[in-house]
UniProtKB/TrEMBL annotation:
Cellular compartment(s): Cytoplasm
Chief place where the protein resides: cytoplasm
Keyword list, A-Z: Aminoacyl-tRNA synthetase, ATP-binding, Cytoplasm, Ligase, Nucleotide-binding, Protein biosynthesis
SUPFAM superfamilies with a match to the protein in the record: Class II aaRS and biotin synthetases, Nucleic acid-binding proteins
Limits of the Aminoacyl-transfer RNA synthetases class-II family profile domain: 131-471
InterPro entries xref list: Aa-tRNA-synt_II (IPR004364), aa-tRNA-synth_II (IPR006195), aa-tRNA-synth_II/BPL/LPL (IPR045864), Asn-tRNA-ligase (IPR004522), Asp/Asn-tRNA-synth_IIb (IPR002312), NA-bd_OB-fold (IPR012340), NA-bd_OB_tRNA (IPR004365)
Gene, per the UniProt record: asnS
Subunit structure: Homodimer.
Assigned GO CC terms: cytoplasm
Enzyme class: ligase
Pfam family of the protein (one): tRNA_anti-codon
EC number from the UniProt entry: 6.1.1.22
Protein name per Swiss-Prot or TrEMBL: Asparagine--tRNA ligase
Amino acid sequence: MEHTRIKQLLQSEEIGKEVIVKGWVRTFRNNQFIAINDGSTIHNIQAVVDFENTDETLLKRVTTGAALRVKGTLVASLGKGQRVEIKVTELSILGDSDPEKFPLQPKKHSLEFLREIAHLRFRTGTFNAIFKVRNALAFAVNKFFYDRDFVYMHTPIITGSDAEGAGEMFRVTTLDLSNPPKTETGEIDFKEDFFGKSTNLTVSGQLEGELAAMAFGNIYTFGPTFRAENSNTTRHLAEFWMIEPEMAFYELEDNMDLAEELLKYVINYALTACSDEIEFLRNRLLEEEKSKPQAERSELDLVEKLQFVVQNEFERVTYTDAVEILKRSKPNQKKQFKYLIEEWGADLQSEHERYLVEKHFKKPVILTDYPREIKSFYMKQNEPDASGRQTVRAMDILFPGIGEMVGGSQREENLEKLLTRMAEVGIPEEEMDWFLDTRRFGSAPHSGFGVGFERLVLFVTGMTNIRDVIPFPRTPKNAEF
Ligand code: 4AD
Ligand code: MG
């Protein structure tokens, strides 16, 4: 390799050494100072050109976005905020960038504008930092599980299973839907399809994960999942990544312990591994905060917020107790909620979740034992309470500023109970034969959960729109590349 990466050079002590750098121009000041970035770090290296002895036409081509190669001597820098810089002896342009046409200017662009040019936004400091944090979090997830002897199981993307009930699915078919083969009763005949039945993109790897957990004990999946819900929110994507561990012989409490340990571990990992990037994002947020009225500014900065989560126990509270808290909060804070929780059994709206997490407990909250009717069929049923109310051993983890970060449960291991529940919600037994075998042969208590990876990245980067933490967001309006 001819060149050295900038991250390495910035840490180098070898003053006087001849070095070669290849990267892209961020700014060019006074016909003399080039800020070069090569993606290895959010920091630029400054290359100082001897402009009196450099060809003028060559200097004109040093424009924002151009790719170049610089050879020179590493010298101690007199400038603020940088230890070293390069005294250029050789400069060549590898790829021009027409300043009239290149959309990124050497100034701060809005996130909205950058979303419009998502194909170029990697080239900004903010997105460099965000995707470095995403990268470190993904590595930390794998390291956490590998170190604890969990098996990384790759579950299918195309599946015939549609039993999660998590949302609308994207259908996958090779049939010509403008002229599909029909059954005798006039419906589309998916038996004629390549897969011989109707298939979709997976909404979750859980059910396949359960099969593996009943052999390996502890497994996890970590891959893309798809929901065709048309929800244009800052927390939903049509394609998102999910981390789904599944553990044999784990009960709900073990499940909660593992989820809390995982989240703290990966956040702490990012704090250390990406200290530069998180510092950059923290300062970016502090800048943003300045434009807000004092009362709306957050008490903690990004780093303090992350450290707080790592250092404090999550609050654990049942759905039933949470509803009581929400009801009590009503009389003295009129119009606190658009949707009042009057009835036990209603699903919590995001405003309720925010109240619990941000106003009441002021920390991450694990909500457990939800009403059976609002949760998936596979969750383990509790004994009915004194007034006959039915709950399941579910757990959702709610985070400040994010809402639901994790959804999980202990699973119903009893075949009879599971079959009854499936019949009640209308899931045909014959379609789930493969899944039911886990309960027919050596059934055992087991549990698992799913972490929305982008929501985790949102929290750690302090960003507020989920479209800004996945390289190529798939939302109802976004699918160009
Ligand atoms: O709560 P969900 O739907 O749970 C499951 O899919 C279970 N099978 C998980 C399991 O037990 N193995 O989704 C889990 C998490 C949510 O808590 C949320 O963080 C995230 O996935 N999520 C989304 N993230 C982005 N966009 C969407 N449309 C999401 N839907 C869910
Ligand atoms: Mg959920």
